[in-house]
Amino acid sequence: MKLGELAPPRGAKKNTKRLGRGSGSGQGMTAGKGTKGQKSRSGGGTPPWFEGGQMPLQRRIPKRGFTNIFRKEFTVVNVADLERFSSGSEIGPLDFQSVGLVKKVPYGVKLLANGEIDRPLTVRVHKASASAVQKIEAAGGKVEIIPIKEGK
Predict the structure, then answer these.
(1) 3-state class of 136 per DSSP?
(2) How far is it, in rounded angstroms, from Cα 17 to Cα 42?
(3) Does 105 reside within a domain?
(4) Count of domains in the chain?
(5) Which of 137, 130, 136 is closest to 81 using CA atoms?
(6) Residue 136 structural domain
(7) Backbone angles phi, psi at 72, to 5 degrees
(8) CA–CA separation, 101 and 118 (whole Å)
(9) Distance separating alpha carbons of residues 135 and 78, to the nearest angstrom
């Protein structure tokens, strides 16, 4: 058997139904959609979420709380993540991005105290928790707070 001789079994392939190609085709004129009505029109039919005129789900469920549009979204870096930097180095938001710790910094970077550190580092961040600063300073390093950029 050669590649050129390969073929699907007999009856496995069907021709596609050719709609709207004249009355002789058997699917001409209305193309099997019947006459008139919402579903016979071009682009007709209802969207998947339509509930037949019933009050829609998104209007039935209770609304609670609100979303603060002025929320400041900080990117979080933990003390344990700083282990990948060499002793005595100065690190900031761009360094976090270059090593893949953070993808993007929409507003600023906040340092949290999750984990331990054993080397002195100078860390430049927009915010830091008190316990994170304490851990960095205990290891002989320091934390510099840089100004937060405005906007979102």
Answers:
(1) helix
(2) 18
(3) yes
(4) 1
(5) 136
(6) 74-145
(7) -95, 115
(8) 19
(9) 11
Q: Is residue 38 part of a domain?
A: no
Largest CA distance in the chain: 89
Helix (H, G, I), strand (E, B) or coil at 144: strand
Q: Are 146 and 94 in contact (CB under 8 A)?
A: no
Alpha helices in the chain (DSSP H): 57-60, 93-98, 130-138
Cross-strand partners of 125? 145
Spell out the per-residue pLDDT of the chain, length 152, in tens.
Answer: 899 999 999 999 999 999 999 999 889 999 999 999 999 999 999 999 999 999 999 999 999 999 999 988 899 999 999 999 999 999 999 999 999 999 988 889 999 999 999 999 999 999 999 999 999 999 999 999 999 876 54
Q: Is 34 part of any domain?
A: no
Please tell me the number of Cα atoms within 13 Å of 65 on its side-chain side.
3
| Listed residue (59, 96, 56, 65) closest to 79, CA to CA | 96
pLDDT of residue 151: 55
Distance CA 138, CA 38 (A): 73
| Residue 134 maps to a domain | yes
